[in-house]
Write a structure and sequence with these properties.
With about 180 residues, the protein is an alpha+beta fold. The protein contains 3 helices and 7 strands; from the N terminus they run E-H-H-E-E-E-E-E-E-H.
Amino acid sequence: MERVYEYNKISYRYKVLMVNILMFPLLGYFLYRIFFTGTNIYLWAFGAIVCVYSLSSSFIRKTNPRIIKISDEEIEFISFGKKSFEINQLTKFRVRVSTPNYQVLIRLEDVNRQQGSFWVTYSQFNDKLDLIAEFDYLEKKIHPDSLRFKGRKGMGDKRPELNTTIPQEPQAEDVS
């Protein structure tokens, strides 16, 4: 069973793409200030470092996935390319909630030493509760004795069920 979770397209465009596109002219401006004005070099260098970090995390390391595909065998993170991990090859799968009900940091590593780190703003994904349940299931599968699951009965015990019911149109009530 494969499940596909997709980031809201409009939010992704403005919160990820536009922010990183804005970093290109900012980086150019900071580099201009460093090399041609000679004043406040450390301030402009700090700004340039922030821009380079933001651009590399989005376009090179691909840390902000637009689509997440989870099946029984594999998990894929898609954004400016694709990174996939076989679930039975994972040695590390950690979920760190940074802001409750908003964003999580996923850290993965497999037996081939392939690593990944992804910021998932799950409030912007379709089926956000199922997505978090999938992450809990995978973390508990890889790290069953994790402190995160102690005292939380049933958390991460099974994958969320695929919702196969089709929503029905509301029927008009018969008042007679």
